[in-house]
Write a structure and sequence with these properties.
Elements (H helix, E strand, L loop, with lengths): L20 H15 L12 H29 L16 H6 L6 E2 L5 H10 L5 H9 L22 E2 L9 H17 L11 E6 L6 H15 L6 E7 L2 E2 L2 E2 L4 H6 L6 E6 L3 H18 L3 E6 L18 H8 L3 H11 L5 H22 L8 H5 L7 H8 L5 H7 L13 H15 L3 E5 L15 H5 L4 E3 L4 H13 L3 E5 L10 H8 L2 H5 L7 E7 L17 H4 L5 E3 L7 H15 L2 E7 L37 E3 L5 E5 L3 H14 L4 E5 L2 E3 L3 H11 L2 E8 L4 H11 L6 E6 L10 H4 L3 H18 L2
The protein binds thiamine diphosphate and magnesium ion.
Amino acid sequence: MVRVATVRARATTVQSLDTDPVDQHFRDRVAELATTPVPAGPVDRLDADTASELLELFDAAAGSRHLDLVARDLRARDEAFYTIGSAGHEANAAVAAALRPTDPALLHYRSGGFYLRRAGQVAGHDGIRDVLLGLVAAAAEPIAGGRHKVFGHADLAVIPQTSTIASHLPRAVGVALTVERSRKLGVASPWPSDAITVCSFGDASVNHSTAAGAINTACHIAYQGLPLPLLLVCEDNGLGISVPTPAGWVRAAYQARPGLRYLAADGSDVLDVLAVAREAVAYVRDRRRPVFLHLTTVRLMGHAGSDAEASYRSSTAIAADLARDPLVHAAKRLVRAGVLDPAGLLARYDAVRARVDATAAEVVRLPKLADAPTIMAPIAPRRPAAVADRAAVAADHHRRLGIFGGRLPEDEGPLTLAQSINRALHDVLAATPGALVFGQDVAAKGGVYGVTRGLQRRFGAGRVFDTLLDEQAVLGLALGAGVSGLLPIAEIQYLAYLHNAEDQIRGEAATLQFFSQGRYRNPMVVRVPAYGYQRGFGGHFHNDSSVAVIRDVPGLIIASPSGPADAPAMLRTCVAAALVDGSVCVFLEPIARYHERDLSTPGDGACCAPYDAPARWVERHVPVGRARTWGDGGDLALVTFGNGVPMALSVAARLAADGIAARVVDLRWLAPLPLDDLLDAAHATGRVLVVDETRRTGGVAEGVMAALLDAGFRGPLARVAAEDSFVPLGAAALHVLVAADRVELAARELADRRRTHGD
Ligand SMILES: Cc1ncc(C[n+]2csc(CCOP(=O)(O)OP(=O)(O)O)c2C)c(N)n1
Ligand SMILES: [Mg+2]
């Protein structure tokens, strides 16, 4: 960045000897107003309210500008860690002014003006201090507590965002939809019932498939006449870092979308933004329909502090942006309207700077995060006793009788896995007024495998509904519903299709408590039909067993029931963990087990299980991270999950015939792993074979074996895992998946080692 060496004294300890060209440009233009005054015309007059609002907006914009300047000074001294600024975008303060401070906001990273104006709407808030605390990563920062620099504050209804551009749009659609849904369902919500959701983003970000998908979802909802009070704000500075947006693209792409009203304002003119934003807000609030508000802004001071803008932009283009500085524009309006004279305006500008400097000098000294436990505390709070209590909550007997059409599931006799999950979902919806079930084909069809059959009929389309075909939209609705106080139970139709949208779990859902110290949370249970062995059907995409990408997400709970004996209790646990701890739970259902009845001989019914009546839910509770062990064989532990469980049980039966006593440990939870139960089994048997239907590389066995070694287990340890292959169609699939014969062979080898070596 080019710096002009002029000395300006400031009465604080944080000061720069250089003046930024943008700062200097502002001063020069205001100085010109004193020497070459332009006579005020009738259009320059402002009524008292507008004049007072313009002063507020000027203060917010000036505060934001000085924060950007100070951020760079602090960065140069290694005292702050973030230099993406809002310079040129400060007129977004007027969007805040048009809204209420209770309207949930999901903001672009250039929202300094918006944030300061909103903070100014709520007594007792010092937005400048909040932002500075974030810049210096102070532990006292109000939202992320020093974990990230974000705009966010629970008191200001500003939900913090990640750095992944556009990833917040699906959630924003979900929040907007939920405002309406909560009112309809009569469920408490953190947002007022007439709230509207605002979501801002850049012009390059609008092209991201996540944004395009979310805006399409908004159109899809509005097109059907369903209410969606959503204000989308595209802050179009014509650039995505160095890449220009084609002139006119944003308007061309969004001015005529079905269900979406398009409005545009000149982002260099804060009063134009105010007028159009007010029109947009009134429309969204009254009509409950979405608006796309297009602000043409400029980007001043480059993309970030480290960005040498001059290397890819002409000096003419940079100068043209500077000539559209919204702060200069606001200053001119104030002077021409006679609200302030140039000297008074500069004094006001410097007074804001003095406040920023003084606050900066104070916050740089504040403590930072200093140890891993403190840093990690908000990731995944766990209150197992409260979860156990909540997991035992059922609707009363009469309501259950009504829900189940007179025949309670505990009286149905043994159920398959699919039936047991279906009955458990009925019970969860009956006992949890804010629970929603949604996904592709879950409503009228009842899911591809019938797991959600009958739910919509019982609980209505307000609580059980189909979504459009977009996994990011499904998870976005879950994110929005969760942060709005509901309990989303979303379905992703197949595990392979979770990968289309996994950032919505990894980047958005799992990080929210971390980046907000638990002040915002998005409880959710994501049900995913998963794994292989579909009798040759479907090939790779219906037999996917890739869980590596979710296993490494900090705090995520991954449940993997193997059959109906555990699935209902585990589902109740996930729901309870979501409600109590805000947990993000992925519930992997082995498709191949859904309709299985028999284990080893036709008619043995060993894959079915009776459904527990609520009176047994306390004793039958399955805590997060606790395995189930079948048998007490002392020679060998077969550690497995999902389809591996029936396989390991049949192998154990064959081994028993030869005098080898194996026990089978069903992990049940792939994250967090049931370490205590694993170690118990390992120490009781002395040898462990992991049977892992996920792949050799990145599969569950890697985690299990590493956990055993980390905990000091030194006995014989082996694994049988699926090949590092994609799954082919037909019977060929069995060549790459784990087969019982291979498990048996490996088990015998491990058992032999004991006999041979006597260890
Ligand atoms: C998904 C993703 N890809 C890439 C980036 C890196 N990145 C950060 S900002 C940015 C440009 C965004 O441009 P725009 O949306 O126009 O916003 P602006 O910075 O111009 O306000 C890019 C590519 C990112 N943060 N997230
Ligand atoms: Mg841009």
